[in-house]
Each structure stands twice: as structure tokens, then as C-alpha cells.
Design brief:
There is one protein chain. 24% of the residues are buried. The chain is globular, with a radius of gyration of 14 Å. The longest helix is centred in the middle third of the chain and has 22 residues, at 42-63. By secondary structure, the protein is of the alpha+beta class. It is built from three helices and seven strands; from the N terminus they run αββαβββαββ. It has a single domain, classed as 2-Layer Sandwich (Beta-Lactamase). This is Roadblock/LC7 domain-containing protein. Residues 9-100 form the Roadblock/LAMTOR2 domain. The chain crosses the membrane at residues 83-104. Keywords: Membrane, Transmembrane, Transmembrane helix. Pfam families: Robl_LC7.
């Protein structure tokens, strides 16, 4: 388990080093629990992870209204004054979230996030939980 965590740290750092402007990267489970992070403080990463659980649920509900959609959220990008927020599906019940400043170019960011998900998607899968217990 410690080796796997070290691999996450290295891979998240690689993403941060490859795209200028990244402030924080969070890997989270579908129920909003932080799995790993790079940058930012742990409390902020926990808040981002919790918010992402609601956002991915909302995006999935909207996706169901698109006739050609399978109802699953692939990526959400939110632009705010001062930066961007990216949320990407990254395996069964897992997501990759990135907060960046305005320097980060959205096309480059989404491509680099997608590359990371392809490389490590199986490692980002989290088992479903009920009442805090793994099923």
C-alpha cells in the first residue's frame, strides 16, 4: 500500500510539473473521500473531494437528459475569476480533480489529465462503499 501511494505521488507530481499553473490535484472516490493529493493543504483537498462528489452526481443527472449520452460524466470544466476547475472520471468510482490558475491552458490540461487517467486508471478504481464500509 505504501508503494502504491508513492506511485500516486510521483504521477500527480508529473502532471503538476507538466502543466504550468496547477495549484492542486486531488484523486477522490465517487463518495467524496480523498485518495491522494498534490499541492494545497489536506483540509482544502478534503473540501474539494467532498464538493466533487456532488458535482459528479449533478453532471451525471444532466448527462441523462442528452439523448445520445450513456448518462455517465466524463469531464467537467468550470471557469471562475482567477482560474479553472477540472473534474474527470478516472476509473470505476474514482475521479481526478485539478484546480489551476489562469495560466493553465484548458486544452492542454484536459489532454494531460486524460493521458494520466489512461496510464493509471486501473489504480484509481475504488470499491463501492455503504455506510463507510467497502462492499
Amino acid at each position: 500500500m505504501i508503494q502504491q501511494r508513492a506511485n500516486f505521488d510521483w504521477m500527480l507530481k508529473d502532471l503538476a510539473d507538466g502543466v504550468p499553473g496547477i495549484e492542486m490535484i486531488v484523486v477522490l472516490s465517487a463518495d467524496g473521500l480523498r485518495i491522494a493529493r498534490h499541492g494545497g493543504d489536506p483540509d482544502a483537498a478534503d473540501r474539494v473531494a467532498a464538493a466533487c462528489a456532488g458535482l459528479q452526481s449533478l453532471a451525471g443527472a444532466v448527462a441523462q437528459e442528452i439523448p445520445a449520452s450513456d448518462g455517465r460524466m466524463r469531464m467537467v470544466i468550470i471557469e471562475v475569476n482567477g482560474g479553472y476547475f477540472y473534474l474527470m472520471a478516472a476509473g470505476a468510482n474514482a475521479y481526478l480533480a485539478v484546480l489551476s490558475d489562469v495560466v493553465a491552458e484548458p486544452g492542454m490540461m484536459s489532454n494531460r489529465m486524460r493521458d494520466l487517467v489512461v496510464r493509471i486508471g486501473a489504480h484509481l478504481t475504488t470499491p463501492p462503499r455503504r455506510n463507510g464500509q467497502t462492499l
